[in-house]
User: Fold these one by one.
Assistant:
Number 1:
Amino acid sequence: MFSTAFPQLHDQGYQQGNRKFRHFTFSRLYSSGMKRHSDKLNLYNPLKFSMSFLLDPMPNIVIKHLIRNRTMRIANEEFTIKDASAFSEPFTGNEEEVEFDFQTLSPIVAHRDIEKNGKPFRHYFTPFDPEFFELIRDNLKRKYASIYKKEVPSEMDCFIVPINVDPKKSLAIVKYRNFIIKGHSGRFHYKGSGKLAQIAYHTGFGSNNPQGFGMVDFYNCKVN
């Protein structure tokens, strides 16, 4: 889609230190008649999913594609688009402090690259590790710095806690281009900067957002 219309943004993204951010994410695929058989999905009803973008021109590229082509390719299959809706953002980003609950639409990934037995190793954290939320918060601040080309003001912060996370069902293990990615689903609570909340709404929480991780729905939103 926008990979051909705007390849520099899609492929290179926004640099912050040694990290690159593309500032978009998307949800899992949902269908009331979807059943998994081994590595295949059988679909019997319309398929739904959500996408979110923070920066132009990506939203316009996607919208124009949907209007003009009315088709979308997922893996090796082509689907006809029956309906598309846009949603308004819950915050302007100018609020000093906001508060809300959020439910994952795709698993949140929090990891740290370490050395284990003399070899590089990627350690994934769970919502039951305090570092899970520290990594999510630090990730939002790095995204802010990549967008605005300056460090996050010291007073801009946020705190995230789990509300309803099932330790037996929250884990999702996904194979992506021969790599294993581990993420967690559930319901969480956020309190803090409105600007960081706006970034999270559009780009997702945690890492691996362009691979379809960290997209969420906001609930019970209020400005403090």
Number 2:
Amino acid sequence: MRTNGYEKEVAWCRNIPPIEDCTAETFFEEYVWCVLNAGMKEQVARKIYERFMEHKDPSAIKHLGKRAAIEQGMKKDIQWLGELKCANDKIEYLQSLPYIGKITKYHLARNIGIDCVKPDRHLVRLAEKFGFDTPYQMCGEIQKTFSDERLGTIDLVLWRYCNLTSGDTP
């Protein structure tokens, strides 16, 4: 699988430990990342994320709803991770967290070790273009050829392509 300069990102995704091994620190970092990315271009969210993570200073986050969610996460990350690990439906549990919605829950799930596909607008369009009912179905079909790849890695590679081409599909 070609990475076009994103080898570290692909390697990171390939090597995400399973949810059972997720630490509170990793959980919190990925929670913040996903909250900041919700409804925002990744490149913009990255700058805000880096400013926030440097000193864990909520004032770096100008969006009041996202700031409040992250402040709550700063206090409850250990509790949330414990509840998540005990949850029967881990992905659904994630949606109960502040500022995690029906799409963002898959982003957070993938980033903390649950192998899944995020049905965001880029992957939905791509799946439709190639005749699949869902991004999950599309990534599953690709996985048949690249059997050693996680669904989340396939998702990431396709998403990155769409992100770099302004959402244009091949």
Number 3:
Amino acid sequence: MAAVGLKTRQERLLGTAAVKGGMLQAHLGWAQKRLGDMQRVAVQLPPDCVPWLTNQMLVSSWVPFRCLILVDRAIAAAVGGMADYTFRDLGRHSATENLGGVYKAFISSEPHRVFAQMGLLHSRFQNFGRFEYQQRGASAGRITMRDYSEYSPVYCTSAVGYFEAALKMMHAPGRILVREVACQCAGDPQCLFDLSW
């Protein structure tokens, strides 16, 4: 399979897809620690996304996927440097905050079981697409994310960081490696993430 990074990646943000507020809260928490004042993020956002920067959002709130992506992009611009590093860090922080907090009971020391459960619970955290997990060896697996009506390379890059941090939290033995080997943003029929530990 060709490396995703070699293909031009597009995004599709229609405004109908949504994710749970816990994801955005974690990303904003990461940004707050680095930036302090969120004004540099707010000025880069369209007016309909600015209200999501407040602390009044609940973990269970439905946040427009489009606003999550635009906020992440604004955070990366305010932080500076390579945007993909920031997106991956946002994903890592989201895993640490959510899987170490509200969803702590969800984590175990069995990665295959945790990722299989993520697939079963997917619709509780976003209202679009499907998430499937396939074990591919004693310490390897593949995540397939398909049928995404909306997508963005920002989200896929943060997903890599999320899966890396989740494996670290499970104390996965060995070297943790997460690679996106196909991406809907690059014209592939689905996003595929290969995991090994």
